[in-house]
């Protein structure tokens, strides 16, 4: 068993970052500053995806990334104190599941769990002004930061969109993209960005997730950036800052040249 603060290589504390998605589960080891120490590995998310088979894959990925001293996990749903409250794109069995305690025991390392869009935001934001993060994947994730402080569990995905009975996730998730086509989906995204800009007066909007590569970039406002899916792993380092246990977390900004790199199409 490794111990938090006792790095496997001298003073380096190795953080195993895990990103759980609706279609894939990814992992990578980071150094003290959030720089990758090895290559990202990805496994397909099982279907159905209740806790047991998902945790089995996480353990498999962890074994491939040893040694590590601690673990950060981005989870696609609301998380409070390491307990998952829902997971609309995984399984109802996640409601009230103590994922943090389970992984701490199973992986034999201190573990912290947060919403995946929040973690992606930590890997993408500049830490200046009002920044909104949207992740386009199986569903739609969202996170809001003001001067680098996270306001957690925003969950825009389930808010009404365009005055209809549909939600943001209904009209911008993977199912809508596949059903209605890229052109119509893009127009909806552009409308959503205009609406959210008026709502939050954003200085920057960061778009990530597996379907960010489907976005037509030249149609986006100047303050909107596409970020690599790797930000969902790089942001894991922020879960270990000194203010981790507060509801609003201030984090040191991740250098932009690491977050705003070309999209990895295999993500």
UniProtKB/TrEMBL annotation:
Swiss-Prot/TrEMBL keywords: Kinase, Transferase
EC numbers on record: 2.7.1.63
Top-rank EC class of the record's enzyme: transferase
Gene3D superfamilies the UniProt entry points to: 3.30.420.40
Entry annotated with the keyword Lipid biosynthesis: no
GO MF assignments: polyphosphate-glucose phosphotransferase activity
One Pfam family matching this protein: ROK
Top-level taxon: Bacteria
Keyword Transferase: yes
Family: Belongs to the ROK (NagC/XylR) family.
Protein name listed in UniProt: Polyphosphate glucokinase
Source species: Kolteria novifilia
Source organism phylogeny: Bacteria, Pseudomonadati, Planctomycetota, Planctomycetia, Kolteriales
